[in-house]
Design brief:
Beta-Lactamase; Alpha-Beta Plaits; 2 domains; 5-stranded mixed sheet; 13 strands
Length: about 350
């Protein structure tokens, strides 16, 4: 961290280095403050100091300036002490960054400068006791500034953790760790945008007779059953697939980036579910529970290019599978869908 507190003449000559950290940043007295900066920036600095009057308040430099030969930037603020003498506090730009904490930093720095001016009026640094007194006050304010900065950094870090936790809760289902019902449509939309012109299969999965699991073994075992089911979905040999929990016993898979989809591809998807998800009963605690699912598939890019319709069509196909005896799959049939829509309308 770079910071310094000096007094200079209106001409820019340094007349007192009250502190400098690191020590080499500011040269000894009888050197020009303006020489710390590039030749291109000096006219602007000279004009700035010429505009300050003895009645001026703390003036903050508007932008970071480069320290010649140090590869660092600082901002500084100025407060007139006398007609031709100024108090200058400089620090690396971290303290002055324009962020949510900037106003609090600025308030502390302004107070710091005002106290130093009052000390200058009362004592002129004529003896070692006065110098020590001033130094102790400066150190106190510097510590306060540092502590405030640390507290704000801690508060920001805690806020970041809370935001990340909230984001994770929205993105991930709390029980299974799959993409949650709050986020899965956005995840599907993103996958589609990243694979323009490609097809995708949405598989709507419903666990058959899951209510009986809860009624027979209780909700704790039921939750364990859902967790084990989610783990089996993760074992599917698909790379570009979003796994999601839609509601209690309803799940979804969206396999994307496909160049083509036909009935054989749909059958292969169901075969993978049979192999990796339905291969054997689910064991929870000491209970061995049979597993059966009904699945409906709809194809993005063939059946529809609207995400909400895609999910509705796959849901419709899943209920077709249930009505046909459960523990099976069905591909979305637009003619069946239109026929049933007509019946509902009547």
């Amino acid at each position: 961290m770079i910071h310094f507190l000096i007094t200079i003449e209106r001409t820019g000559m340094i007349c007192d280095v009250r502190w400098s950290q690191p020590a080499y940043i500011v040269p000894a007295v009888d050197h020009s403050f303006f020489d710390l900066f590039s030749s291109e920036e000096r006219p602007e600095l000279i004009q700035l100091f010429d505009s300050i009057t003895p009645e001026s308040d703390v003036l903050h430099c508007g932008r970071p300036l480069s320290l010649v030969g140090h590869g660092a930037t600082v901002r500084f603020c100025v407060l007139p002490l006398e007609e031709t003498r100024f108090l200058v506090f400089g620090a690396d730009t971290l303290l002055f960054d324009e962020n949510s904490n900037a106003s609090e930093y600025k308030s502390i720095i302004n107070r710091f400068m005002q106290i130093n001016r009052e000390l200058h009026k009362k004592i002129k640094f004529d003896n070692s006791e006065a110098t020590r007194y001033q130094f102790e006050n400066i150190q106190f304010l510097n510590n306060e500034l540092t502590n405030t900065r640390r507290n704000l950094e801690k508060a920001n870090a805690q806020l970041k953790r809370l935001n990340e936790d909230l984001s994770n809760r929205l993105v991930k289902d709390a029980l299974t760790g799959l993409v949650s019902r709050y986020q899965y449509r956005a995840e599907i939309e993103l996958a589609i945008k990243k694979n323009p012109g490609k097809l995708g299969v949405f598989t709507f999965v419903d666990i058959d007779a899951f209510k009986q699991v809860n009624d027979t073994f209780g909700h704790r075992v039921g939750d364990g059953y859902l967790i084990a089911f989610a783990d089996r979905l993760r074992s599917l040999p698909f790379t570009d697939t979003i796994l999601m929990r839609i509601s209690g016993d309803e799940f979804g898979l969206f396999t994307y980036g496909l160049p083509d989809v036909n009935d054989e591809d749909i059958a292969d998807l169901w075969a993978a579910l049979q192999t990796h998800v339905l291969r054997e009963p689910v064991v929870v605690e000491t209970h061995e529970i049979p597993i059966s699912i009904s699945a409906g598939m709809a194809v993005f890019g063939i059946d529809t290019e609207e995400i909400y319709d895609l999910i509705e069509y796959a849901d419709f196909a899943m209920y077709q599978a249930k009505r046909n005896g459960k523990n099976r799959y069905s591909r979305f049939d637009p003619s069946e869908y239109e026929r049933e829509k007509g019946e509902w309308a009547n």
